[in-house]
Amino acid sequence: MLESEESLSRGTVLVVDDTLENLDVLDDLLTGHGYEVRRAIDGVMALRAVAAEPPDLILLDIMMPGMNGYEVCAKLKADSATWGIPVLFISALDDAQDKVRAFETGGVDYIPKPFQAAEVVARVATHLQNALLQKILEDRGRALEEREQQVRQLRQRVKRLEEVLGYYGLDPTSI
Q1: Nearest-CA neighbor of 69 among 30, 16, 21?
Q2: Is the dihedral of CA 37, 41, 44, 48 positive or negative?
Q3: Three-class SS of residue 7?
Q4: Residue 39: which H helix or E strand, with range?
Q5: What is the pLDDT of residue 48?
Q6: What pLDDT, on the 0 to 100 scale, is given for residue 38?
Q7: Which domain holds residue 154?
Q8: What residue stretches are annotated with the Response regulatory domain (predicted)?
Q9: Is the Cα dihedral 14, 16, 103, 54 positive or negative?
């Protein structure tokens, strides 16, 4: 298994909501489905938690005192260390403009409150799988770039060897 597969397969979810009841319900739901759940009650606490140990996915409420969910998401997406973490907004705001703003700030999904447990689990699973596949693609892309660099270096060596052989009047194809 690739390192990226191991790091994402544990499924760490940071749940950010200022309502303790929502935190408890989501924590129980996700823990019951095998996810490791971390909690934050406001935007500042969420950013600190992400900086300390980035989760695989964030479930983020919009309406919170102090820093709202849009601001948290914008800060995460502006940081090269956290921009790739999928953010799923979960909110009682039901206006189309609120949903559009969630996507414009970098959210990958929007779950309305009150939420259905099965829907939350399905969306979390889908976005964790998407993140895993993205990470695998990135890892394979880096591996391909490394192999291409090795091929370029080997071609340069072959060219130098052909030049040396040519200097001595030897045909490289006859050796």
Answers
A1: 16
A2: negative
A3: helix
A4: strand 36-40
A5: 98
A6: 98
A7: 142-174
A8: 12-128
A9: negative
Q: Are residues 129 and 146 in the same domain?
A: no
User: Looking at the structure, do residues 120 and 147 belong to the same domain, yes or no?
Assistant: no
Other beta carbons within 10 angstroms of residue 130's beta carbon come to 14
Which pLDDT tens digit goes with each residue over 117-164? 999 999 999 999 999 898 899 999 999 999 999 999 999 999 998 889
* Token duo for residue 123: 């969306």
Here the tokens at position 172 are 């490289």
pTM recorded for the entire structure: 0.79
Helices (H), the chain: 3-9, 20-32, 43-52, 69-78, 96-104, 117-167
Task: Provide φ and ψ at 39, rounded to 5°.
Answer: -130, 150
Q: How far is CA 132 from the centre of its chain?
A: 8
